[in-house]
Amino acid sequence: MIQLHRILFFTVFLIPIIIGLTTFAQIISFGGVELTEYYQFITLLFLLPMLSYGATTSLFGFLISLLKQGDPLLKAKKIPEKELDFPSIDRVPVALVMPVYEENEVSIFARIKVIYESLEKYHSLPKLDFFILSDTRTPEKWIKEEAAYLELCESTGNYQKFHYRRRKSNLNGKSGNIADFCRRWGNRYEHMIILDADSLMSGEIIVQLIAMMEQNPKAGIIQTNSKLFRATTLFQKLTEFSSHLFSSYFLKGASFWQINANSYWGHNAILRIKPFMEYCALPHLPEYGGLGGKILSHDTVEASLMRKAGYEVLCAYELEGSYEENPPNIIDVLKRDQRWCQGNLQHFWFLFGKKIPFINRIHILNGILSYLNSPIWLCYILLSLWNYIEESKFLNYSMLPEEFEYFKAQIYDPLYLKLLYLSLLLLFLPRVLSYFSLPLKQIFLKFPAFFLETLFSILIAPIYMIYHSIFVVSIFLNKKISWGPQNRDAESSYPFSYVVSSFFGITILGLVSAYISYSYSLMLFFLTMPIWIGWTLSIPLVMFTSREQKSLHSFFDLSYWKPNRGLTNNLREELARSDEKRMEGKEIFYALVHPVFHKKHKQLQGNKSYRSKVSDSITNDFEILLGKGPNQLDRKKLLNILSNRELLDLFFQKFWTSEKSKWGQYWKNIWEEINPSSFP
Question: Is 134 left (phi over 0), alpha (psi -120 to 50) or beta?
Fold first, then answer.
């Protein structure tokens, strides 16, 4: 049955590819085949499969949706509540893990609290623990994370469920953070639920995931269908609408042929810890410029290694209650894409790895081509225009004027248009199927949002093409990207001058392209319009979509898909209650000298043995810290003091036994502002 699904899928997948390639062969058969036409044929060999894959996946997702029983081979089916074995689920030790790096601490712990309360309301799991794993390097943000963690424990009255740990060295980023957790605590748990800093999950879906893992002992990873939420800017509204409309069909279609070898996204998923620890350790790649070093995107590789070990990677797309956020604007998406681009291209090393299952090689190749196809697409456009113009000249010189006009209008141009229409059909079929599968009333109600999202996608695609091409070229030129903190704040828009400087070159490219195409022919002008108009309008497009457009909000009503409003509203209320500014500017004061918070901060630094002797350099650092304030001390030295229990004790004693006249202005200002005996 599994083989039948895959044969059926790939048969449909190959049909448009064959049609496209034979049509192109007809086009170039009228004259001698030039070198540029060979190159164009090669680009088609990459582009047509990607277009066909998206269309075929959505088509099968649409067909699966028409079946009342759904996909008969789906293993991660939702378990009816009456069939859940709650006593058995209660006995399973599970860790819910959230790695964070320079994130908004209020948002992080508000999400953890909402998830905890959702679990308590639906079904309390006595053996589920929460871990917030911090790689934060900024001392002030680190202290605020600790304060938010302590407040979470106190507000819930539970210090046993919640665990906060900050690594002193953020080696290998997120994957290194997870690996460190597994080394320290992995043997205590059977399963691990991984969340990103912008994730949110309901208690019901967590219980379902644990039950599915217990029901499928060969399941190594179960991925959920995480929907976008908390959209504020127009860009977020458009992508949020898109995720609700299109994602389900795509996941159903992908699962139809992948079955037990689905994709893993690195978050909003549950993993079986033992095989993950044994088989999914990431190697350090050969030092080969941007393609070497530490792996930036770990999820696809981990899924491949899990499958290599004989475990299944499933997708529970039926489950609702899994959410994540999207960056607030195009610029932040491009910054994230630059990291993802390098991470995906690094997967080339695993494409021919030993014993990697064939389906996972397809996942790896798909991830590579998702970015590599941008420069290939750009080359195809340029080669297509060049070959069309040169071929037209050749045919014009080879025929009488009347023959040329007839041949061009009746034979040559229709073949080019046939290839164009095939590409458009493959490109827009997923949208059309998703939209027209809605009830008739919803088709009318959702049309404004569908139209705006489609228009936006057409305009933004050429911009992504240029930037992704730049990313690919820079990586091949050995430029490495570091994984920095992500901007998730919708209110932190970029100034107009920054947007202009970022997209000025693309704007000029669009104007020049429009002028050249118009100078050649009106037909070429209109055929290339979807490309150059996006480039030309890039600056106003970025500015307009980066802001909240309240007049358009009514178009993006998601009530038809019944999102978990209770869960998301709880998060909004929790964020509104939190006082984000209470420690602003006073973080180091609280950690080093506040009588109450200092003690709690010290307890969070572990139980390593004290030094026998304090070096002269530390004594000098203390003098600078006391007399001039923390801003005058090197960040690394300050972090060293803040993370060492002995040094914390020594500075605390030094501060409280010193005369006020020896304090720096930093300490005096805060002393006058607050009552040092109170807890923030």
Answer: beta
Q: In angstroms, rounded to a whole number, what is the distance separating the alpha carbons of residues 266 and 274?
A: 17
Closest by CA position to 45, among listed 469, 479, 376? 376
Q: Whole-angstrom Cα distance, residue 659 to residue 521?
A: 84
SS3 state of residue 262: coil
Q: Which two tokens stand for residue 479?
A: 């430029």
C-alpha–C-alpha distance, residues 196 and 496, integer Å: 30
Q: How far apart are CA 309 and CA 280, in angstroms?
A: 9
Give the burial string for 382-418 (b: 16+ CB within 10 Å, else e).
ebbbebbeebbeebeeeeeeeebeebbeeebeebbeb
**Which secondary-structure segment (H or E) carries 14?**
helix 2-28
Determine how β-strand 191-194 pairs with β-strand 94-100. Answer: parallel
DSSP E strand stretches across 267-419? 269-272, 312-316, 322-324
Over the stretch 457-488, which tens digit does the pLDDT of each residue have? 999 999 999 999 999 999 888 876 666 667 77
Parallel, antiparallel, or unpaired for β 322-324 and 200-201? antiparallel
Number of H-type helices and E-type strands within the chain: 28, 10
Q: Half-sphere exposure (CA, 13 Å, Cβ side) for 303?
A: 29
Question: How far is the C-alpha of 8 from the C-alpha of 21, rounded, in Å?
Answer: 21
What is the token pair recorded at 663?
């304090």
Which tokens in the block code for residue 280?
């999914």
Integer Cα distance of 538 and 544 in angstroms: 10
| Residue pLDDT, tens place only, 611-640 | 556 677 888 989 999 999 999 999 889 999
Q: Give the number of other Cβ atoms within 10 Å of residue 497's Cβ.
A: 8
CA 84 to CA 90: how far, in whole Å?
11
Bridge-based pairing of strands 219-224 and 269-272 is: antiparallel
Choose among 604, 582, 565, 491: nearest CA to 114: 565
Per-residue pLDDT band at 36 (split at 50, 70, 90):
confident
CB 164 within 8 A of CB 604: yes
Q: What is the pLDDT of residues 551-568, one digit of tens each?
A: 888 899 888 888 888 899
φ/ψ (deg, to 5) at 370: -60, -25
Helix, strand, coil share (%) of the chain residues, nearest 5: 65, 5, 30
> Is 513 in contact with 532 (CB distance < 8 Å)?
yes
Smallest CA-to-CA distance from 649 within 616, 620, 618, 680 is with 618
What is the DSSP code string of 161-215? SEEEEE-SS-TTHHHHHHHHHHHHHGGG-SEEEE--TT-EE-HHHHHHHHHHHHH
Q: Give me the DSSP letters along 136-165.
A: ---HHHHHHHHHHHHHHHHHHT-SSSEEEE
Count Cα neighbours of 405 within 13 Å in the Cβ-side half-sphere. 2
**Residue 38 φ then ψ, to 5°:** -60, -45
Provide the pairing of β-strand 191-194 with 269-272: antiparallel
C-alpha to C-alpha distance for 228 and 484, rounded to whole angstroms: 22
